[in-house]
Amino acid sequence: MINAIIIDDEPAARASLALEIKLHCPQIRIIAEASSVAEGVEAVGSHPEASLLFLDIQMTDGSGFDLLQQINFESLKIIFTTAYSEYALRAIKFAPLDYLLKPIDAQELQAAVEKATRGKQTELQEQIRLFMQQMGGNPAPARIALSTADGIHLHYIKNIVRCASDGNYATVYFDDQRKLLVAKTLKDLEVLLAPYSFERIHKSHLINLDHLRRYYNRFSGEVEMSDGAVLPVAQRKKTQLLELLGKVNG
Description:
By secondary structure, this protein is an alpha/beta fold. It has helices spanning about 10-25, 35-45, 65-70, 85-95, 105-120, 120-135, 185-195, 235-250; strands at about 1-5, 30-35, 50-55, 60, 60-65, 75-80, 100, 145-150, 150-155, 160-165, 170-175, 180, 200, 205-210, 210-215, 220-225, 230. The chain has 2 domains: about 1-135, Rossmann fold, CATH 3.40.50; about 145-250, CATH 2.40.50.1020.
């Protein structure tokens, strides 16, 4: 059995999640519930046998981020639950951590539990640290966690030259000529990396402006990247890109 704690400030949400777990995840035993950050900290401290935490992102007396700052999460697997909070969701996806949107879907619950319980603890700890760095409002995180078919890879953001669409996946190109096929769409990467000098120049291309070496004023526009790649600029993106380059030159 997997011992779990539910932390959520909405009684109905706790009851609903507990019922879904009972019906669809019989391997999980709920050993405690808490309705606030303060109660959650106490519950975790009182139940060292717990190995899984269902944690609401936003509660009346704080956030899941506040709770994580006050507990030892080294032995815990964590699944976040939320009904909103775009900022927190971006941080979770950046890490990337498991999360469930309310109302809880049974299949998504089962998938999140399976993923969380089979994941390596060391990888999870690094993901939580990335999440906390994001939620703490620090400058651009030094690294991003990228999921692939064989696991999670941590890379420095500054070393990413560009990203290219590959259907429901994307290929990430690095400044040492390596590339990585990741389990994210280009749109996902655009949302995550937009605050860090990345710009979508084409439906198939997302570039790191710090690695842009040259702009060619031909066709609708082309750019040359530090890895030697020459990429097309979509006509609708040309003006925006030229404005950004003007600001850089200015």
